[in-house]
Amino acid sequence: MKKVIFALLLSTTLFACSGGLEKTYTPRVLAANESFDEFPKSKKNVLTLVRVDSNRADNQDHFVIKYKDTTINIQDGKKPLATLFKNARFINSQNTAAVVQVVDSSAMVSPFYLVVVKDGKSDVISLDRPSTGKEDAKFTDGLVELSRTNFVINNDFIVNSVNGKVYPIKRQNDSERIQGRFFMYSRDKTTLVFLTPSALYQVNYRNGETQTLQVPASLLAEPDRAAGEIQQNYGWITNANGTPFLKYNGNPDRIVDIKEFKN
Question: Which of 24, 82, 93, 163 is the most buried (most CB within 10 A)?
Fold first, then answer.
């Protein structure tokens, strides 16, 4: 009996020293029309972002992710096991879904994942799409804030951090992420405009409609001047489907509401 008790005590000690339970997840692909606004049946069924104190060369807060008493790690193919994360933020008020970025030594933009709890079970979803774009290094900007409640990840996903919605952004070319930078959005914030080397690429992330707007090359080369020019000579026109797109209005004297635009 003494040996059994000793073994149990030793097991408990080793468990405590190891830092607790851990579980490694293989991320899956985002499914169409998924929602992550899960309301937990118990107060325990939520995620916790635990800030880790360490010497951080990137001057960013680092976190481990926990579901109840279990630390979540991510193994994505042949990539190193991901245990530490940055840019961590919840995307609903219930704390059942969070976007996180891996902390690694890669020179490229580190991958992003969505960690969620659904029906009392935790899961991990990749927010990375393969791309063969020649200018990927130039236009892969990581997380870009559009407003207090919306942000874009690598030109491929837009996230609403209030209601737990994540939308893939339709590409110009399926094999490569949008080769441009976010420029502005429509008044209802559903149509995004990207400044590409040859035109303004417009995409409505809710219904997938797209349009390419040709503008003078001089505007494409000078984004700061382009913003003022477009405010004066272009406006948002809603098509038959109710989708707003930027159009040339043909009237240089038209007064445009500045609220229609965001730089």
Answer: 82
Q: DSSP labels for 158-187?
A: EEETTBTEEEEPPPSBTTB--SSEEEEE-T
Query: What does the pLDDT look like over 239-259, one tens digit per residue?
Result: 999 999 999 986 544 444 444
Q: How far is CA 40 from the centre of its chain?
A: 23
Cβ atoms of residues 99 and 158 within 8 Å: no
- Return d(Cα 104, Cα 82) in angstroms, integer: 8
74/63 Cα distance (integer angstroms): 13
**Low-confidence stretches of the chain (pLDDT beneath 50):** 1-18, 252-263
What is the SS3 assignment for 53-98?
A: CCCCCCCCCEEEEEECCEEEEECCCCCCCECCEEEEEECECCCCEE
In 3D space, the residue among 98, 130, 129 whose CA is nearest the CA of residue 114 turns out to be 98
Provide Rg for the chain, Cα atoms: 23
pTM of the model: 0.84
Measure the CA–CA gap between 77 and 212, rounded to whole angstroms.
36
Contact of 24 with 81, CB cutoff 8 Å: yes
- The answer to whether 163 and 130 have CB atoms below 8 angstroms apart is no
Say how many C-beta atoms besides its own lie within 10 A of residue 255's C-beta: 8
User: Which residue in 142, 114, 108 sits closest to 127, CA to CA?
Assistant: 114
Helical segments of the chain, H only: 2-17, 136-139, 217-221, 223-233
